[in-house]
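Lab meeting notes turned into a lecture example. A postdoc, R.K., suggested we walk through two folding results consecutively so the class can see how the record format repeats. The first protein's sequence and structure tokens come next.
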Amino acid sequence: MMSETTHTPFKSGFVAVVGKPNVGKSTLVNHFVGRKVSIVSPRPQTTRRRILGVMNLPNAQIVFVDTPGIHKPKYKLGERMVEEAVGSLPDADVILFVVDASRPPGSEDRMIAETLQKEAKAPIILVLNKADKLPIDKVKPHTEAYWALVPNHADWMMTNALKGHNCDKLLEQILKYLPEAPPYFPPDQITDQPERLFAAELIREKVLLNTRQEVPHGVGVAIERWEERPNGVLYIAATVYVERENHKGILIGEKGKMLKKIGQQARQELELWMGRKIYLELWVKVRENWRNNPAFFQQLES
């Protein structure tokens, strides 16, 4: 008599991670993937395009789709960002609606909830992130207020993505709704981003982290040269675009110190990420109102 063997089906699918700016979407994706695939800063609207982060498990492959924060755009660049985020919903197998649990729902949360009602076909998991900042007396009112926004949510979870709290439980919920399917990517692939795009993103991240509120969101990065040198070093030349002359001065800093610091930080992290020596050269140029010029910003890597 033949013994029966239990077969665990392989699951695979796309998980759209949506929410308003600065609620921890990219931090959550990076946690699950185990490496940085999305840049992170305390500044809202850091993520500008859809980025895939692939998590490989013995019996599953989860493709997280990190999306730009959904907001009321003031520029054409912002309009494209919102279109990218909303465009990820129809094809998703699971949707994570990430919110900042430490604050009550705002107008952008309500706008996203309305969008989900219209566009979402997949199960919605409500992720109440930043739970560590949620005062005890606000747990019940904030939780119930978010539940009311998406009454049809399939599941919910309190998380602290920065420290990974409850992310294991959230992962179980995701796997529960993921369909049976073969993997979409090879097991050693963690993102769909080309290296030069990630390099540009990393440079922009270091600009945002080092300049804080001094330079607003009008920062774009173009990779001008990407060359393999005979000595095995990868040479990268990039231009950082800003919208005002005084922002250029802030970025360059006294005797070029700020730009040098940004370049060093970006180069060091890139070398770790790519596992090779890199020579990075940065320039800063002013391009007024570039965020309202689609022909221009579509040429930028970040």
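The second example is placed directly after the first for contrast:
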Amino acid sequence: MLPSTDTCEFISTEGLAGLLKDGKIRLIDVRTEEAWSECHISGSTNLCIYETAFPEKMAEFEADKAAPIVIYGEGHPFKADLAAYASLQSQGYTEVSILTGGLKAWKEEGREIEGSGPADDAPRSRHYFLDTEKSHLRWVGRNLMNQHNGEIQLAGGEIKFDQNGILAEGEVIADMTKMVCHDIKESKMAQALIGHLASVDFFDVENHPEARFNLDSGEPIKGALDGAPNLLVKGQLTARGTSMPLETKAMLAPIEGGFVLQTVFQFDRTQVGALYGSGRIFERLGMHLVNDLVSIDLTAFFIISKP
């Protein structure tokens, strides 16, 4: 639980500048090491509040619980500084203040900062390939009384960026012959379920061994925060040889040597001809009713060199 700002002590940018000039303050940047390296207030020390070892590192940095301390984060609307304030108070530090407006306010006033500058997240290439070993496609199917979950092995894929660094097209291919169930521990029962899903009642895997998601466009979502979808993806989902339009919100983020794309969506299996147990198709199903919607959780790693 974050503390109310009414219960916190704050210090202005002007007040902090004066304390730094006099050398009478311990200034702590509570953001990540990466953020601190890019840009920080001159004279600050980085102790990341997101780390579980924050209390121990704080004790090593400053053992005097009465020492004057100023902490800061990025600024509005983020609240890492409030989390750090609560933690320091719980540890017994009595002279803690938060920089009003955080780093954002300090920079806007043109005060002294240091750092390497923001990382360049633009694609170094326009073409990346799916890393099938690291990527996962997880599924959940439900009936009236229960649900089952598992995974489908990914067989390949790629994404391409346009000249402006915007995701322009791509595809992810699933090997339907390598579908497994995770929640049923008894092997024969699990095999029976997978056999039924692979049959003509559902995905007719013998005749259609692959399913595909073809990405036609990726529109950036304005104002998206870290940890929230930042891309509106539109394309086509193909299973059983039948395609249907699909639109989903996704997170696309740079990683070392490539990108990771993560999305969770549902699709109506009856739209591709998987009709078994559908209340839209069959009457008076009772306990044989199976939900039309299938949930998909895709985490796809794309790397610059083809595996």
